[in-house]
Design goal:
The protein is an alpha+beta fold. The strands form five sheets. A four-stranded mixed beta sheet has the order 1-2-7-4. A three-stranded antiparallel beta sheet has the order 3-13-10. A two-stranded antiparallel sheet has the order 5-6. The structure holds protoporphyrin IX containing FE (HEM). InterPro entries: Cyt_P450 (IPR001128), Cyt_P450_CS (IPR017972), Cyt_P450_E_grp-I (IPR002401), Cyt_P450_sf (IPR036396).
């Protein structure tokens, strides 16, 4: 549609407005120069349920609550100190993946395996160790099965296009009653799961240790902030919910694309339209008037793949990042930003998890390629890179079976 209607267009979808931006200069305006005006998030009937009407951080409007939540989450998750503290643990979890592949070398080097499942366990362990100092035993661990099931149902219900008719046309909303009840039921069971198995355990441990308790994971920091009256018990649970949706699958999808076609985050990025932005008041963009409360999406995928800005965009040519002129550039938060390449967004609502995601991604792919040659299984010449998307995610449609051959023909230890 961007090719037909241009770098900015407005769609009227029932009672809602949707603006789509597909130009680096306009992306600069939405995310940076007018970052405050466009710094809110639209919600809908389903996201109201999954965020408790904006008690979380990812989907809340731009304002005091968002600032407080982002500040409280930064200390235990998004600093260089955290990266330094946990990088050894990330290495351990990746080594366990290599060990498991080596232990099953007969099968993985001939038939191959669906590597996603093992990487998913690794990423859950990385994030749950950081959050709760807890980990899952294996892919068969009942708590792992339950956590992944809850999160996958949450993603399917929230990302489906099935409920849009009732969201866009309020008159039709009564027909959504069954769908919304399903969402409410899932959300209360899912939050109870996080609370009973993880948050309450940390609370108990902190209460038992009293003054002597040493803060040893993100949840301890967050409970501490709640005890000081900065946030509520509900906010604590919504932070856990946000990390479960924002951190794990996004990083996993990037790994799957990286294994399947090397140039991850540009050719395929897990959130190709970023998380939608919204202007609370009427605003101007590229000379047009954007009505208040318009959902504004930045087409990051097209910015990163438009032949107008990239030479042969479908080719794997990493040197393009050094050779090609970046077009719209700006200094944001001390760094130079090329507005053609925004897999994590930029500015106020940009992804704070970039500080964790990039080194974890690098470590995992580095470890796999230094230990194994990776191939498509016998038969197909290439891995199938068909795509499947939801309201704002894009992932590989068929999880790839990958054959892992130890480098040099002998088993390399992790
Ligand atoms: C490769 C992995 C990841 C990708 C591609 C990614 C991408 C994104 C994008 C595109 C946004 C929205 C930016 C915008 O709206 O302008 C976002 C927001 C966010 N991401 Fe990530 N992300 C990744 C991993 C993570 C991780 C590991 C964490 C946490 C540990 C995380 C936490 C968040 C949070 C909390 C937000 C909401 C920020 C806000 O609204 O203020 N992400 N991410």
């Amino acid at each position: 549609m961007s090719q037909t209607y241009g770098s900015i267009f407005l769609l009227k979808l029932g009672s809602k407005n949707l603006a789509v931006v597909s130009d680096p200069e306009l992306a600069n305006q939405v995310l940076h120069t007018q970052g405050v005006e466009f710094g809110s998030r639209p919600r809908n009937v389903v996201f109201d349920i999954f965020t408790g009407n904006g008690q979380d951080m990812v989907f809340t409007i731009y304002g005091d609550h968002w600032r407080k939540m982002r500040r409280i989450m930064t200390l235990p998750f998004f600093t260089n100190k955290v990266v330094h503290q946990y990088s050894g643990m990330w290495g351990e979890e990746i080594d366990l993946v290599v060990r498991d592949l080596n232990n099953n070398i007969e099968k993985v080097s001939k038939e191959g395996i669906v590597i996603r499942r093992r990487l998913q366990l690794m990423l859950y362990n990385i994030m749950y160790r950081m959050m709760f100092d807890a980990k899952f035993e294996s892919q068969e661990d009942p708590l792992f099965i339950e956590a992944t099931r809850f999160n996958s149902e949450r993603s399917q219900l929230a990302q489906s296009f099935e409920y849009n008719y009732g969201d866009f046309i309020p008159l039709l909303r009564p027909f959504l009653r069954g769908y919304l009840n399903k969402c409410r039921d899932l959300q209360s069971r899912r939050l109870a799961f996080f609370n009973n198995y993880y948050v309450e355990k940390r609370r108990k441990m902190m209460a038992e240790n009293g003054e002597k308790h040493q803060i040893s994971c993100a949840m301890d920091h967050i409970i501490d902030a709640q005890k000081k009256g900065e946030i509520t018990e509900e906010n604590v649970l919504y932070i856990v919910e946000n990390i479960n949706v924002a951190a794990i699958e996004t990083t996993l999808w990037s790994m799957e694309w990286a294994i399947a076609e090397v140039e991850t985050l540009r050719l395929h990025t897990p959130i190709p339209l970023l998380v939608p932005h919204m202007n609370l008041e009427e605003a101007k963009l590229g000379g047009y008037t954007i009505p208040k409360e318009t959902k504004v999406v930045v087409n990051a995928w097209w910015l990163a793949n438009n032949p107008k800005w990239w030479k042969n965009p479908s080719e794997f040519r990493p040197e393009r990042f050094l050779e090609e002129d970046g077009g719209t550039q700006a200094v944001v938060g001390g760094g130079n930003v090329d507005f053609r390449f925004l897999p994590f967004g930029v500015g106020r609502r940009s992804c704070p998890g970039i500080i964790l995601a990039l080194p974890i991604l690098g470590l995992v792919i580095g470890k796999l390629v230094s230990n194994f040659e990776m191939h498509a299984p016998q038969g197909p010449e290439k891995i199938d890179v068909g795509e499947r998307g939801g309201q704002f995610s894009l992932h590989i449609a068929n999880h790839s079976t990958v054959v892992f051959k130890p480098i040099g023909g002998s088993i390399v230890k992790a």
